[in-house]
Amino acid sequence: MLINQQMVEKAEKLIPSLQSNEVEVQHIIEVIADDAAFQGWSTKQFMKPQEWKKQSYGKGDSFIVDFGDHYVGYVELAIRSVGSPPDAPLKLKLTFGEMPCEIAEPFESYDGWLSSSWLQEELMFVDVLPAEIKLPRRYCFRYIKVEVLDTSVKYKVAFDYINCKAVTSGDMSKVTALPSNLPYDIVEMDRIAIKTLQNCMQTVFEDGPKRDRRLWIGDLRLQAQANYYTIQNYDLVKRCLYLFGGMRLEDGTVGACVFEKPYAHVDDTKLFDYALFFVAVLHDYYKATQDMDTLQELWPIALEQLEIGLSRLDVRGIVTDDSTWWCFTDWHDELNKQASAQAVLIYCLKHGRELAIILGQEEQLKYITENIEFASNASMKYLWDEKAGFFVSGEERQISWASQIWMALAEVLPSTHNSLLLTRLFEDSPSIGMTTPYMYHHLIEALFLVGNKEQAIAEMQAYWGAMMQDGANTFWELYNPKDKKLSPYGSNLINSYCHAWSCTPTYFIRKYLI
Amino acid sequence: MLINQQMVEKAEKLIPSLQSNEVEVQHIIEVIADDAAFQGWSTKQFMKPQEWKKQSYGKGDSFIVDFGDHYVGYVELAIRSVGSPPDAPLKLKLTFGEMPCEIAEPFESYDGWLSSSWLQEELMFVDVLPAEIKLPRRYCFRYIKVEVLDTSVKYKVAFDYINCKAVTSGDMSKVTALPSNLPYDIVEMDRIAIKTLQNCMQTVFEDGPKRDRRLWIGDLRLQAQANYYTIQNYDLVKRCLYLFGGMRLEDGTVGACVFEKPYAHVDDTKLFDYALFFVAVLHDYYKATQDMDTLQELWPIALEQLEIGLSRLDVRGIVTDDSTWWCFTDWHDELNKQASAQAVLIYCLKHGRELAIILGQEEQLKYITENIEFASNASMKYLWDEKAGFFVSGEERQISWASQIWMALAEVLPSTHNSLLLTRLFEDSPSIGMTTPYMYHHLIEALFLVGNKEQAIAEMQAYWGAMMQDGANTFWELYNPKDKKLSPYGSNLINSYCHAWSCTPTYFIRKYLI
Q1: Of A171, B73, B171, B296, which is the most buried if we count CB atoms within 10 A?
Q2: Contact flag B151-A267 (C-beta cutoff 8 Å)
Q3: List of residues 6+ apart from A382 with CB closer than 8 A
Q4: CB proximity list for A363: less than 8 A, separation 6 or greater
Q5: Please, is B393 exposed, middle or buried when counting C-beta atoms within 10 Å of its C-beta (0-12, 13-18, 19+)?
Q6: Are strands A131-134 and A62-83 parallel, antiparallel or unpaired?
Q7: Cα separation of A322 and A329, whole Å?
Q8: For chain A, how long is the longest CA-to-CA vector?
C-alpha cells in the first residue's frame, strides 16, 4: 500500500463527533405473510408500548418492537424478572430488521455469498436480573424481534424499555425547507432521501449502515453531491478524500473502499471506474467549497488516477476489456463494462480538465484535453454503431442501458444527438437493463443533462416513488419493481435497505426542481 | 422475607477478594465416540498449541482447546485476520465443557427441565480485527469448542491465544501435605476433592460453579467441613452463615439458598432438612473457630429452626408426611423422606443441644433434650420395624438406604445396634438406593461413626475412586456407576461436574485416616 501518513492524519483529525438522539419503541407489531405486500410481508400493530411493558414473557415467548422509522444506533434495554428470584440465566435472542423480511424469515435460511455475519442478531445470556443492558455493537434497524429462549420454571421476564440511541454526523440544521409549491410526493421523496443520507453519515460516508458499513468511493461521489444541497458537512467529504488520497494501492490507484478500524486502512479491491471517480469527487468538492489548499494537495493523486485510467487504453484509444479487471458500473452479471468504463474515463478526464484550468496547469490541461479527444474519437470510431444508433461494448458489441447512459454523461456525442440517444434508449429499451438505484441515478442525471427534465422527474417518481409505495423509510441498495426480492448476493435478507447510492432524489430535487 | 440488615451487612463486609491465575491452552484435541469411555466420549490430543496458533480458520472450521484441568474463570482470546482486510464481521460460536459430552453433543438436543440457559455457550460477532476480547461472563470448563460460523470469502482468522483467568477464594497455602505413607489413590482423591472445593469457593461457597452457581445450605454444610481440614477460610463460612441468618423466609425458616446479585437475597425455596442444617453448620463453625460472638448472635435463629422443625411433628412425635413440604435428602423420585427428615431433625437437635450447653442456656437445653427424647422414642415406636430390622418411612412403610443412613447418623439406636443396622443395610441392600455423592457422603460418615473404618474407606474408594477412573478432574454432582448418564434434570449435559457436595473425600481422609 502507498501510505501518505500526513494525509491520513489530516483525515483522522476530521473525524466528526456524532449527534445522538434517544428513540423509544413506538408499537408492538406482528409481521404477516401478505402476497400483496413488498417481498410478501406486511406489518400490523397489535399492542401499545404501555401494555407491552406490563406483559411477562417466559420460555418460547417472543415479540416484535417497531421504532416507527429507520435508525442507526445503539440499543439499550431494561429487563426485570417476574415471579420467584431468577435461579438461572435469561437466554435471549435478538433479531434486528431494517425490513419485515429480516424479522419474518429465519436467518438460518440464508445462503448467499456475502458473509452471514452481516445479518444482525445476538444471542444473549443475562446472569443477573434486573438488568440495564447497553449492547456494544451498532445496529441498523426499524424492527427488533425479541425471543425469550429460556428463563426457568420459576420466573418470567418483563421489559421496562428498549431504546435506541440513534447516531449520525448529519446535522439537519442546515437543510432548508422546500418551496411550498412542490407536490407532496416530491417533498416526501426529498425527506426520505435526506434520511437515507443522514443514516449513512457516520464517521465517514458509509455505503450502508447495515452492510458494508464503510466508505466506498462510488457511493461517496453521490453522497457528497446530495450533501452539498442539504446537510452541507464539507469536512466529512474532505476527510473521505484524504482517506482515499492518503492510502492507495501499490500501483498508485485509489482503492475502492476504506476501513476505519482498528486504524484507517484501504481495502485491496480495485475498481476501474471507482478510482477515476476520485477526480470527480475532488472537482465537486472544490466547486462546493472553493477549498484551494485541498485541491492543490490532492491534485497530483487525481491526475495520477487519470494517467492510470488512460494506461488501460489500447492503441486505438479504447479501454482494454479482459478478465484482469473489474469496473463496477452496476450489479449485472451479463453487462459488459467496456463502453461504460470508456465513458467514465472521458467523464473524469473532463472533470480533470476543469481542475487543471482552475489550477492554471497549462501542460496538464493540454495532456488531458488531448486525451479527451483521443478517447472520444476512438469511442465514436470503434464503439459507436451508427446503424443501431447506440454505443456497443465488448467483443460481442453488446448494447446496454449502462453504456448509453454513461456515454451520454460523458457527452461524447454532440448535445442534440445526446438527447436523441436517450430518447432512442427508451424507445428500443435494450434487454441489458439497470439493477441498482446507483445506475438509475445516472439515468436521471443524464436526462437532466440533456434537458429532458419532465422525463427525469417521471423516471424518478416511477422508481423511487415505487419504493415509497412499497414502504421505504429510507431508500434501498437494490430495487427492481419487477423482481422485488432481487439480490446480487443470493438473498434479499442481506440487501441494504438504507443505502448511500440511493439518496440522490434530494440532489435532483434541490438542484433541478427549485 | 425477614431481613436483618445488620447481619446482611456483616455478611457483605466479608466478601472475599478472589485469587486469580492465568492458564493457557494445553492441547488441541478431538472428542471421539468411544463406548468404553465415560458417557461414551473420549478425547485425543492431536495438535500442540504452537502449531494451532499458526493455523487459519474459515467458515465452517472448528477446533477444541483443552486447558488440561477444570477451571472456573474468565476467558480472554486474541484473534487476527489472515488474508484480505476483513470486510465483514467474524461470527464465532463458543461452547464450554466441563466434560467431553458438552463438547460432543449439541446443546440443541437438550430437553431437560432445568433451564437450557445453564449450558455454557456464546454466539459472538467481532466487528473489528485484530481483537483482544475479554468475555464478561464467568465460565466453568476444561474444554472450549470454537466454531468459526462465518468470516467472508476474503479472509480467515487465526488465534494468538485463548487464556483462562481462573478465580477462587480458596487459598491453598494452608493446606498441609498428606503423610507419605498414604496410598497413591487416596492422595490423588484428596487432591481432586480439594480442587473441587476450591473451584466452588468463590464469593460464597457455591454448589456448582457451572450450575447453580449459588449458596445452598446443604452443600455449605459439607464444604465447610472439608474447608476446616484443608483451606481453612473461616470467614467465608461466617459470611455464608450471616447471609442465611440475615435473610429468612416469612415464617422464620432459613431459606434453602441465597443469591448474591444484584444484591444479596434469599430464594423462596424451603427445604425441611436444609433449614435445620443451619444448626449443624453453626455448631461445626463454632467447633472450628471458637467464635463465640457469632454463635451468640446466630443462636436465636438456630434455635428457631429447631422449633420450626419440631412444629412439623404430629402428636405421636413423627414428622408429618404430606404433599405440602419438601425435604431434599437425595435426588430420588421414589424415595419417601419422612424417616430421613425425622432423623435430620434429631441429628440437628443434638447439634443444638451441644450449642445450648456451650452457651449455658439451661432452659433451652432442657427443651431440646426433651424433644430429642420425644422424637427418638417416637421413631422407635412408629418408624422402627423390629421384624425387618430397618426404619420405615411414609404410609407405605418404605425401607430405603437414605432412611437407615440418616437414622444411623442421628444415633437413634444404641451404639452397637447402629453398627448392626448398617451391616444389615449392606446385606439386604434395599432397592431404594442412593443417587448422589451427597447421599454417599452420609453413608461414609455413618460408617466412620459406627467404627466401620475399613468399609468406609472401601466405599469411598469404590465410589469416588470410580469417578477418578472415569476421568474426573473435579468430583461430580451425580454419579451412578451403573448408569453414568443419570441426571435428575433430564440430561447429563446439564449435570454439574464440579460440585460442592462431592468434595468430602478430603474431609474423610484428613479427619479419619491421618
Answers
A1: B73
A2: no
A3: A316, A317, A318
A4: none
A5: buried
A6: antiparallel
A7: 16
A8: 83
Nearest to A259 by CA among A210, A298, A212: A212
Give the position of cell 489548499.
Answer: A293
Distance CA A297, CA B253 (A): 80
Cβ–Cβ < 8 Å for A421, A413: yes
Residues 6+ apart with CB under 8 A from A347: A276, A280, A406, A409, A410
Question: Which ranges in B360-469 belong to alpha helices (H)?
Answer: 362-378, 401-410, 415-428, 437-449, 453-469
A151 and B CB contact within 8 Å: yes
pLDDT, tens digit only, all 514 positions of chain B: 899 999 999 999 999 999 999 999 999 999 999 999 999 999 999 999 999 999 999 999 999 999 999 999 999 999 999 999 999 999 999 999 999 999 999 999 999 999 999 999 999 999 999 999 999 999 999 999 999 999 999 999 999 999 999 999 999 999 999 999 999 999 999 999 999 999 999 999 999 999 999 999 999 999 999 999 999 999 999 999 999 999 999 999 999 999 999 999 999 999 999 999 999 999 999 999 999 999 999 999 999 999 999 999 999 999 999 888 999 999 999 999 999 999 999 999 999 999 999 999 999 999 999 999 999 999 999 999 999 999 999 999 999 999 999 999 999 999 899 999 999 999 999 999 999 999 999 999 999 999 999 999 999 999 999 999 999 999 999 999 999 999 999 999 999 999 999 999 999 999 999 9
Residue of B nearest to A137 (CA): B127
What are the C-alpha distances in Å from B179 to residues B184, B400, B445, B503? 11, 37, 22, 20
DSSP reduced 3-state for A80: strand
Asked whether A266 and A247 are in contact (CB, 8 A), the reply is: yes
Residue of A nearest to B115 (CA): A152
CA distances from A159 to A76, A129, B203 (A): 11, 11, 29
Note whether A88 contacts B259, CB cutoff 8 Å.
no
Supply the ipTM of this predicted assembly: 0.97
Residue of A nearest to B127 (CA): A137
Angle of helix A437-449 versus helix A217-228 axis, rounded to 10? 50
Interface test with A, best of B115, B250, B257, B326 (most A CBs within 10 A): B115
C-alpha cell read off for A154: 420459576
Contact map slice: B 78-107 vs A, CB within 8 A: 84-91
Whole-angstrom Cα distance, residue B341 to residue B353? 18
First and final C-alpha spacing in chain A? 44
CA–CA distance from A285 to each of A293, A302, A329, A345, B224 (Å)? 12, 13, 22, 19, 74
This prediction has a pTM of: 0.97
Q: Which amino acid is at A390?
A: F
